[in-house]
Amino acid sequence: MRDNGNGAIYDARQLGRPKMLVLGVQHMFAMFGATVLVPTLTGLSVSSTLLFAGVGTLLFHFLTKWKVPAFLGSSFAFIGGYSAIAPMLDSGNGTMTANTEMLPYACFGVVCAGLLYVVLAALFKAFGPKAVMRYFPPIVTGPIIICIGLTLSSTAIDSCRQNWWIALVAIGVVVVCNIWGRGM
Length: 184
Known about the structure:
The structure is a single chain. By secondary structure, the chain is mainly α. The protein has helices at residues 17-42, 46-63, 79-85, 103-127, 129-133, 138-162, 164-180; strands at 89-90, 96-97. Helices cover 67% and strands 2% of the residues. A hairpin with a 5-residue loop joins strand 1 and strand 2 (96-97). The termini are close together.
């Protein structure tokens, strides 16, 4: 996060209370939506997801010695994998139910991804960020991010079809924040 190009912000209190409040509300909506929507779309328990997001966030803050302000929630990056391995099942009356038979296999994939994060963190600790990031140039990471976005586009379109008013309000908020939220 930068403050109008004046340099990096290492303490959010430097921004002042109004900017902190706006960024906090924005973060709350973004993270709460993801933390509730991802388990709903995949068939996982929302209450368990909220509990472990909180526990994971507290553990993260403890391990980083309270220096990194972050909330660890669900990731939309895993929805494609979940829908490929354990797609939601049509219950016959127009509602979708969780594929409880295949859901553990999809969750195992997420556990493997988490273990890969631990390995990557160990590499960062051992060799430093510069040495590790040399293997992740923008020419590699950019297309991966594009693929994730394209994979999720069908989910976004399906969600918009269910309630166009919410979709229009969401895109309106994004446009307004992009135009009048410069410097944030």
